Amino acid sequence: MVLKFHIETFGCQMNVYDSDLVAGILLNNGYVKADSIHKADILFVNTCAIREKAVERVIHKMEQYAHLKLKKGKLKIAGILGCIPQYNSDRLKKELPYIDILCGPDNYDQLPQMISDCLKSKKLQENLDLKKEQNYEDILPFTENTHSAFVTVIRGCNNFCAYCVVPYVRGRERSRSVQSIMTEVKDHVSKSITEITLLGQNVNSYNSDGMNFAQLLNKVSEIDGLRRLRFATSHPKDISDELISVMADNPKVCKHLHLPFQAGSNEVLKRMNRGYTREEYLSKIEKVRKEIPGIALTTDIIVGFPGETDEDFEQTLDVMKRSGFDNSFMFIYSERDLTFAKKNFNDDVPKKVKAERHKRVAELQKQLGIEQIGKDTGSIKEVLVESVSKKRSTEMIGRTDQNRMVIFSRQDGVKEGDYVHVKISRADGVSLFGEIVNLRDGGR
Ligand code: SAH
Ligand code: SF4
Ligand code: F3S
Questions:
Q1: Average per-residue pLDDT in the chain?
Q2: By the 8 A CB rule, do 225 and 189 touch?
Q3: Ligand 1 pocket member 51 (CB < 6 A)
Q4: Would you say the CB of residue 288 lies under 6 angstroms from ligand 3?
Q5: What is the C-alpha to C-alpha distance for residues 226 and 399, in angstroms, rounded to an integer?
Q6: C-beta separation of 129 from 176 below 8 A
Q7: pLDDT value at position 141?
Q8: How far apart are the C-alpha atoms of 423 and 426, rounded to whole Å?
Q9: In this predicted model, what pLDDT tens digit does every residue of 357-369 receive, in sequence order?
Q10: Residue of higher predicted confidence among 430 and 331
Q11: Which helix (H) or strand (E) element contains residue 411?
């Protein structure tokens, strides 16, 4: 009998990519995709350990799924993949005793063997070795996306920011070969995908076959049929002049930069081990804005890191105001096992203060979003159509080069994956709104 699998994904874009890798591995080994979780024989949940809330969410979900395995009997195997098993497998074994497989991010090629061992022995299969060479070079991921895809180019992280669990759950940095990246991007493009996002916890550390990240961007952009090239995430200390000039000069490289600053105070940045000062961050931003006109910036911010005073926090607001982000991903500090911060600092900012600071950054970001995104009002933007709006079936959603979301009226014949031109009539703090205009060549 052919067994069907279903994969559910939590966490960052790299987990989305990894789930596609797992799908590719399982399909190559004779398993097929289930139409829904209820039709699956095998369930994998790919998980994130970055904050305590992320862990709790997965455990809660898995408690809800227990009946699929224990009562209905259709589900033969339930497995947890990714960063939570790598972070704390004991907790999963204790709280979710029905789980059959625990597999860390470097062992997905072992999954077919683990599944068959588990079916035979009915015993928990666990594979949590960190493998410093693992890059899944020879495996093509399987994506259902028809217009856009992620391609991981570097795995792991060497930065050891004091709060962060990633270096412990993903191991050290290793870059994929240029050839395997090119093969994968070409495969996507041959299937009508026109937008690629190159991924890594710190893509700017990419280094393989004598090529750095800026050079890799130029190389990938040469692929015919590829129209948009994005990347995430960049570390402020590693943004090079070469990268800035590739962004400025290469028309396929999108004019959007995600550059997490985390905190605005030099004291806090130092304790976080971020490797830059507020002044250095701000001068990078200034340079990027000058060299790449029209660039959109987004960031990540942590509030309530150990020892963060009111004055420190004001500096975070100040960096936000000076930088003018389109969007910020704003997080309340969550203490993580294994990290330098947990071992050396007290999680001493009261919960209430953390919540208040989070509210204040969110309010400021809303205002900044309105200012930044509003600048597009009145202009005509090229938009990659992503989907029909879930809220209103008469509308479609797409994105501009700067990664701004655009909502526009549906037109006959316009479908997911098309490029259209949209005249922007208004903006709120998050999205742009407009109508398709048909330029002389048809507008698309
Ligand atoms: N490699 C990327 C992103 C890593 S995780 C980078 O360096 O920017 C995504 C974001 O989660 C981080 O940028 C940080 O803002 C946040 N984060 C990481 N660890 C956290 C923790 N312990 N508590 C709260 N937020 C955290
Ligand atoms: Fe975590 Fe810092 Fe690495 Fe990003 S650069 S993954 S925040 S340790
Ligand atoms: Fe989370 Fe792992 Fe990504 S901890 S942020 S899923 S690398």
A1: 96
A2: yes
A3: yes
A4: no
A5: 16
A6: no
A7: 97
A8: 9
A9: 999 999 999 999 9
A10: 331
A11: none
The residues that bridge with 435 in the sheet, in sequence order, are 423
Report the C-alpha gap between 29 and 34 in whole angstroms. Answer: 15
Residue 73 and residue 55: Cα distance in Å, rounded?
26
Tell me the pLDDT tens digit for each residue of 93-124: 999 999 999 999 999 999 999 999 999 999 99
Query: Could you tell me if 402 and 294 are in contact, meaning their C-beta atoms sit under 8 angstroms apart?
Result: yes
Residue with the smallest CA separation from ligand 1 atom 10 is 300
**Over residues 428-439, mean pLDDT:** 91
Cα–Cα distance between 339 and 343 in angstroms, integer? 6
Which residue segments constitute the domains of the chain, with CATH numbers given?
4-127 (3.40.50.12160), 145-254 (3.30.750.210), 257-374 (3.30.750.200), 380-439 (2.40.50.140)
Is the separation of the CB atoms in 119 and 79 below 8 Å?
no
Percent of the chain scoring above 70 in pLDDT: 98
| pTM of this structure | 0.97
Q: Counting ligands in written order, which one lies closest to the CA of residue 157? A: 2
With b meaning 16 or more CB within 10 Å and e meaning fewer, what string describes 379-408? eebbbbbbebeeeeeeebbbbbbbbbbbbb
Q: Token pair of 240, please?
A: 């090079």
Q: How many whole angstroms from 49 Cα to the centroid of ligand 3?
A: 6
User: 292 C-alpha vs ligand 1 centroid, how far in Å?
Assistant: 26
